[in-house]
Design goal:
The chain is of the alpha/beta class. The chain has 18 helices and ten strands. Helix 5 links the parallel strand 2 and strand 3.
Length: 425
């Protein structure tokens, strides 16, 4: 324990100090402990962050990782009506788009040429899709760039594809892996409590189904991320129970690569703008974000050592502050980002590798480019003197190079038409 930490703990309130000291002795943080820590303010919050930083050092070391990747949100047309989503459009919307295979292939090739090791495919649940559509998409990616990792399809999408094909989650995932799928994003989790899910997304995948999809993936050797959307109508108890469920799942399957807290972006979200749901908050406050990340390190760090800050949600400055509150990963470069942007996120759609490394070094840590499974691609030095010149670092206007969500919704070439997925001959 550092002198700074010892000194800080000496002025912390008794209940918080007891939990923090036991956490440093590998005490397992319970749901009630997390709820108590969620009230930490002032010196108590400072001490909580210091303990989280110490545990991060023990559990994940001093390297901060990132992945060079690209998001491809191939359609925004969706049969669901989730109240927190500002990305989705109905089949009748003039802003609906649907990318053909040749455009997806072009974007994959561009990502590969820019140094990406991963493409992330997620989208709306369009009536254009069939049971084979996601499988076909994997084939398109692998035919274009055989060595790129496919990180794709939320549990909601896996459920949708499996239901269209009329097979089990296990069998559908098996087909996706055969087509080239490498890992699943653990999104569509929001808060894993059906009472709350019925409030914010009545037709969304259930908690049991989410758990079944993820557990099936893990049993097949498919790694997944884990996420939680917070700062809307959930209580701190809901948050802690969500993380406790993830911890129990990890101990059973061991398949989570990381945990990613996702702040609710409220500006354009129907849940906030025009909802009849009482008590909706405009996302978390800055201190609430710090508390949540720090508590996540204490609660999950032993079982899920990688804690990722979402610069899309938090911005790079706050993400850099979170490096002192338990975080050891800054996520991906993205190149395209449509879902958070549609909800009102203002932090852009590309973070260049050089920018990420600058923030990491400025925090006193060592930058490392990783792959999706947290294998080391390149470890960098303490200064930028020997850094390579990378294609992405020269991109000054991401919208001009990669296209934006607004451009997609207005591009006549990709306008949604109610027919099957177009395939390159």
């Amino acid at each position: 324990m550092t002198t700074q930490l010892e000194s800080c703990l000496g002025s912390v309130s008794r209940g918080v100090r007891s939990i923090l000291e036991r956490s440093l002795d590998d005490y397992e943080l319970g749901v009630d402990d997390g709820v108590l820590l969620s009230g930490a303010r002032g010196t108590d919050l400072h001490a909580l962050c210091l303990v989280a930083d110490e545990l991060r050092h023990r559990q994940a070391g001093d390297r901060v990782t990132y992945v060079v990747n690209r998001n491809i949100n191939f359609t925004n047309v969706c049969i669901k009506n989730c109240k927190f989503c500002a990305f989705a459009r109905t089949v009748r919307s003039e802003q609906g788009y649907f990318l053909p295979h040749e455009e997806i292939a072009r974007r994959v090739q561009q990502a590969w040429d820019m140094g990406a090791t991963e493409v992330c495919l997620q989208a709306g649940l369009s009536p254009n899709l069939t049971g084979d559509s996601y499988i076909d998409l994997c084939h398109v990616v692998k035919e274009t760039a055989p060595d790129i990792h496919i990180h794709a399809f939320s549990p909601e999408e896996v459920k949708f594809g499996a239901s269209l094909k009329r097979v089990s989650f296990h069998d559908y995932l098996t087909e996706l892996v055969a087509a080239g799928l490498g890992s699943l994003p653990g999104t569509s989790a929001e808060i894993l409590d059906d009472r709350l899910r019925k409030t914010i997304a009545p037709t969304r995948i259930s908690t049991a189904e989410w758990v079944e999809v993820i557990s099936s993936a893990h049993k097949l050797g498919i790694p997944t991320t884990s996420t939680m959307m917070f700062g809307h109508v959930e209580s701190v108890g809901d948050r802690m129970r969500h993380m406790d469920l993830l911890r129990r799942m990890q101990r059973e399957t061991g398949g989570f690569t990381e945990f990613v807290p996702l702040s609710f972006v409220h500006e354009e979200a129907p849940l906030f703008v025009k909802s009849d749901v009482p008590g909706v908050r405009p996302g978390p406050t800055g201190d609430d974000v710090l508390r949540l990340y720090a508590i996540a390190r204490l609660m999950l760090g032993h079982d899920i050592p990688n804690l990722q800050a979402s610069w899309v949600k938090e911005g790079l400055r706050t993400s850099q502050l979170l490096l002192g509150s338990g975080v050891n990963d800054l996520g991906g470069t993205l190149m395209n980002e449509s879902i958070s942007t549609a909800a009102g996120a203002r932090h852009g759609q590309l973070m260049t590798p050089a920018t990420l490394r600058r923030a990491i070094r400025d925090s006193g840590r060592i930058p490392v480019e990783r792959d999706t499974r947290y294998g080391v691609v390149r470890e960098f030095g303490a200064t930028a003197d020997d850094d390579p010149v990378e294609p992405l670092d020269g991109v000054q206007d991401p919208d001009a190079v990669f296209g934006s969500y607004q451009q997609l919704t207005q591009d006549a070439r990709f306008h949604y038409e109610p027919r099957g997925l177009r395939v390159v001959s």
